[in-house]
């Protein structure tokens, strides 16, 4: 196997590991440290799906709009078809602390759309691009690998359905109609992401001067605001979102959507700055990641406070090492150019 092939496989495995790390092990594991023991299963559940998304988008020449759209499809597959939490009236108490309409847990859905799209899909893919810049726009897998990952992703949804869903809400089964609707929605979103959006030219964006600190601050504040508007602090089961006693659920959903749209618009303008580079991307991941982890410490138990503090230190440390690698890479490139 040539070195380029080895690099692509390393990038693929890194993405498969980063997906559950960003989505669960820096979040759920803060309250339940034993979640780390489930890493192999989490790689199956998260890693294969996100790797499939990334490979499909790269092969059709898609960009962030395609990734976000497939993130929506991924959330429906995981939470709707696999976990069944989108329709279950009792799982995680989402039907009680959130807005439930027509048998659908709307608050939970919007929260998970944000969490899965950002932490399961966008952030891991962005970080892998920083770690392996030479493969940023290239497929990691060949056709056989794509088929294998696709089968594994489907298996991951089945594992969620047959294990976690059964454990969290024994005896509950979504209606056949619901399963059909979710399946059709996943297929439609995938078609739009892979066949339509790659052909759509994105409008020009007015650049906004980007500093690393500014990017990290905006991303962190936006993440914290989004989570607190939609989810119980620390995911405590005895309460609802922090402002649920003051504002009705539809207003909270609208505010969270507003925060997401404004944050996305600002980050797009930052990214349009000619000086925006991998160091900015690291700060972006850091701001979001630290806020994501600190949200879980709001449960305020000795376990969450300790685990949260350790996790934040590890996150910052890992990203600092990555930033050092980026600077070293930049210095080496400058020296080579000089000679």
TrEMBL record:
Membrane spanning stretches: 33-53, 60-77, 113-132, 144-164, 176-200, 212-231, 251-270, 282-298, 304-323
Superkingdom of this protein's organism: Bacteria
Keyword terms: Membrane, Transmembrane, Transmembrane helix
Name of this protein: DUF998 domain-containing protein
Native organism: Tsukamurella sputi
